[in-house]
Structures are given as structure tokens and as C-alpha cells.
Amino acid sequence: MKRVRSSNTTLELKVRRTAYRLGYRFRLYPKDLAGSPDLAFLGRKTVVFVHGCFWHGHDCARGARKPVANADYWSEKIAKNTARDGVVVAALEADGWKVGIIWGCESKEPRLSETLTALLGPVRRKDGQQHPKSPTGQHEYGRRHLGLFGGNRRPCG
Question: What is the pLDDT of residues 75-101, one digit of tens each?
């Protein structure tokens, strides 16, 4: 149990990398919010919890597995985690926050990007235009405009 992490897990790092790559900016583990969410998008008043399916009792194949050794302890622990998650989500929603939960089984790349975009909406730039890496709709800039060809490192035009 010593090797099981509570923060900076592989799954959390994957979600953080994907969100950053899509152009979203966030805060990590804000202590002033109920439950200390994994990611907080303050400008969007949205928080994201990244849950492992087993630890938080998800209804997928991995979350439905029951340990054989010390079964009573584990079933009680997972039930407590699930109850605590419900209380935290209710408290955040009562404070006006939009709450999203990303499960371990939903962390495959195309689905993860779609989930984040659906939860957070399009990426906004300071000039009001859509961010060029945003997956909503077509990219308004091609590879040539972004300067991704050969030796020219500056954007064209």
C-alpha cells in the first residue's frame, strides 16, 4: 500500500498533459475548495476529479472487481470513498462550481480530449478567437500557417 499514490498519479498526469496540450490552464489541488479537486479551472468555475475505477467504485469492469483478501475491509473502504465523493460533489455544486469526474477507464486519448472539451467548452484566447489547437470544429490554421515546415520557424503570413 505504500506504493499507491494519492496525488500525481499516472492517470492524473495524463489528464493534466492532455488539458494543457488542448490549451486549458488550471490550478492543482486548491485547498480552499471542498475535497481539494485534482484540477481547478478557476475562470470557468469548473473542477475535475480524476478517479481510479477500483478506488472509487466505478461500475466498469475494473471498478467491479472485488478483492479476495480482506474483502470486508476493502468493500467498507470503497463504500466510504464513494460516500465521501458524493458529499464533496454536492458541496461544490452548492457553491456554484461545475464538477467533472474523469474515470480511469475513460483515459484513452481520443475520448479524454472529447470529455475535457465537452466539460470545459472551447478554449478562449485573449483576442476572443478560438485557440488553434482546440478540437472543436476545423482548425483555422494549417501546418504552413503555424510554421511547422522545415527551416522556417516563424509563422507565415
Answer: 899 899 999 999 999 999 999 999 999
Radius of gyration over every alpha carbon of the chain, rounded to an integer in angstroms: 19
Indicate whether 91 and 149 sit together in one domain: no
**Helix, strand, coil share of the chain (percent; to 5):** 40, 10, 50
Confidence of residue 137 (pLDDT cuts 50, 70, 90): very low
Q: How far apart are CA 57 and CA 99, in angstroms?
A: 18
Residue 60: inside a domain, yes or no? Answer: yes
C-alpha 124/C-alpha 2 separation (Å) is 41
Cα separation, 157 vs 147, whole angstroms: 10
Query: Which domain does 47 fall in, by range?
Result: 10-121
The pTM for the full model equals: 0.74
Rounded CA-CA distance 55/75 in Å is: 10
